[in-house]
Amino acid sequence: MRYFHLPRITSLVTLLALCGCTMGPDFHAPEAPAVNGYTTKPLPTATQSAPVALGSAQHFETVSASSNEQWWLSFGSPKLNRLIDEAFKANPNIAAAQATLQQAQQTLAAQRGSTLYPHANLNLSGERMLFNPSAFGQQGQSNIFNLYNANVGVSYMFDLFGANRRSLEAYAAQSDYQTHELRAARLTLAGNLVTATMTEAGIAAQIDATQQILDIQSKQLDIARQRQSIGAIGLADLLALQTQLAQTRATLPPLNERLQQEHHLIAMLCGKTPGEFQSIDFTLADFRLPQRLPQVVPSQLVRQRPDIQAAEAMLHSANAQYGNAIAGLYPQINLTGNLGQESLTTSSLFNPQSAVWSLAAQLTQPLFDAGLHASVLAAKANLEAVGANYRQTVLQAFRNVADALRALDDDAQTLNADAIADNAAQATQDLVGQQYHLGGASYLQWLFSQQQAQQTHINLIGAQFLRLIDTAALYQAMGGAWIPDQGIPSADASSIEKNQALYLRSHT
């Protein structure tokens, strides 16, 4: 009899598998915005030129989306590269993202194992029973006996309308989401470290320039005291210089505070407390301004930015959950089978005569459940909400890119203007210095020209590290895309770094 039913059972399983379908809409990745550029007006292919020692012009080159995301290497700073490598290993956010990704992957594996394959369980039992014939209206003595049972139970739910497949699709999309979240965490961590180290270098340079202004003003005040003591100047002139010195000195504590805050931020990003972190002092000469910048085409940006990819994965998951809710309105078929042995003695438990088996199929069709339709509507509303969030993420990404591109063009113009002003102030200082040594200018006039040169140089420092920071912002906005070969031979790169150092030293 068992062999007679086996072909029918096999045919039934095959027929159910072939007839299965998946309810709900299939997911298709949204189309990228149909635009050719990121800004209303076309941007130039290169920024305005600046002095070579400050990085010269930056050229934008169109690149395709890629998975190579070590964009910080383009700044040519070994100190920065080592710091980011250490942070990737110790940062808690990265560790949390990695663990969450592993959890999502294992959850997907667990759901796949429990839905795609039958469940098989081994059951062993032994009972001692008392049988009383009088309870059934019969005569006879009560008997006590043992009953032993060993069987394997198998159950499988046929996924006729794709409820399980949609559920697995949702779990797979959630795993993809965590993958992109890990990429986003790495991109954010690298971006924060690059920005923090550049800001630290810029603030340190501003502190040095401010300290030199203080030294100059202190000398001016000493001379003024001597002149006031002999009646050459009035008390009002002396008090004005004291006020100026005090105002300049008051700018140092906020700068020092910002510098320490950047130190503390870098320590936190590296997974350490400020007290245990060994500070690395960065200078502007530690960074090389990239001359070639990536510009991912708009149609590829949605494939490059991890936040857009994460939002797309969430949209995929919501779409699958909607299909799963629709499948819940349709019948479910569950097939169960048992094959085992049953005997009154353990010695005969596994004899052929003790074999027992059963096979059952159950179909469940919801007839009335008001909550099912509400669940479908809720899943549809969630799909619409996630879709709107996806579109907002794309809009924000395109705005980030447009802002970064515009900022770099403006930064280059600002830097160029500040460099011209700085050179003019430096030339004035040199000229007044020559006049002083020849007796054509007073010592106070020379000190005043030095002060003006240092104040102008502070503006140049701000423009310089702001351009570095906005360059890093462009890499982040592009999702980490970069051009590995910067087109600068190592000798030229070294000379640029030397020029930067000489330029800074000559103005301090």
Task: Please provide a written account of the structure.
The protein is an alpha+beta fold. It has one domain: Up-down Bundle (Outer membrane efflux proteins (OEP)). Helices cover 60% and strands 12% of the residues. It has helices spanning 2-19, 78-90, 92-116, 163-229, 235-250, 252-269, 298-304, 306-327, 370-437, 443-477, 490-506; strands at residues 59-63, 119-131, 143-158, 292-296, 332-343, 355-364. The chain is elongated and about 140 Å long. It starts with a helix and ends with a helix. A four-stranded antiparallel β-sheet has the order 2-3-5-6. A two-stranded parallel sheet has the order 1-4.
Given the C-alpha coordinates, what overall shape results? elongated
CATH superfamily placement: Outer membrane efflux proteins (OEP)
Number of domains: 1
Number of strands: 6
Our Rg estimate from Cα atoms comes to 38 Å
Measured as a percent range, the helix fraction is 55-70%
Any guess at the CATH architecture? Up-down Bundle
Mind telling me the CATH class? Answer: Mainly Alpha
Percent strand: 5-15%
How far apart are the termini?
A: 100 Å
Q: What does the main sheet amount to?
A: 4 strands, antiparallel
How is the largest sheet built, in terms of strand order?
A: 2-3-5-6
List the uncertain runs: 1-18, 487-508
- The overall average pLDDT, rounded, is 81
Determine the number of helices (DSSP H or I, runs of at least 4 residues).
11
State the order of secondary-structure elements, H for helix, E for strand: HEHHEEHHHEHHEEHHH
The CATH topology turns out to be: Outer membrane efflux proteins (OEP)
User: How would you classify the helix and strand content by structural class?
Assistant: alpha+beta
